[in-house]
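# nightly structure sweep
# worker-07 picked up a monomer target from the shared queue
# config: single-sequence mode, recycle default, output format = structure tokens
# input follows
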Amino acid sequence: FTKAGVIRAGVPSWCETKPDCDNLAKAVLDVLTNCQYWRDDSQVVMVLVSKRYATDRPAGATIKVRAIQGV
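# output follows
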């Protein structure tokens, strides 16, 4: 980052610093379990997690939960 808080030119778009992706995913799963979105996070069969610098949009998270047909 520059002193103005702008990401420097040429910096990779992927963020390789802490927190780890698995810890971020676990935090989201735990919150959804605690608010009783599902019975237990053991019901989750697929998770896709990535960390990127927010260069073209506000910082935040996108979370999508879908039922898998036939399960």
